[in-house]
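PROTEIN DESIGN WORKSHEET
SECTION A - STRUCTURE
LENGTH: 88
TOKENS:
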């Protein structure tokens, strides 16, 4: 999926459901988030992440938002929309 640059970091999602955060200057991996798992939800519906592909990342009001569970072409299914708040 398409990476995003924000605040000195490159954020790159993957088809296996991971989100990597790299230091934009050094390329060092700062964080790895696995979304292809059971996800706690705010509405009580069981959430499960999966592949991150088309329409990968959005940035709004200090949050990074991604859909996780792109079910096309045999990829990992899921039903999650995940909002991540970067550490300050």
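SECTION B - SEQUENCE
RESIDUE ASSIGNMENT:
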């Amino acid at each position: 999926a398409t990476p995003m640059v924000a605040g000195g970091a490159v954020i790159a999602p993957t088809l296996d459901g991971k989100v990597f955060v790299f230091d934009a200057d050094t390329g060092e991996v700062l964080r790895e988030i696995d979304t292809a798992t059971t996800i706690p939800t705010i509405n009580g519906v069981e959430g499960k992440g999966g592949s991150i592909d088309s329409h990968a990342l959005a940035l709004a009001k200090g949050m990074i938002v991604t859909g996780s569970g792109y079910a096309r072409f045999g990829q990992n299914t899921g039903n999650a929309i995940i909002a991540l708040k970067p550490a300050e």
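SECTION C - NOTES
The longest strand covers residues 18-23.
The radius of gyration is 13 Å.
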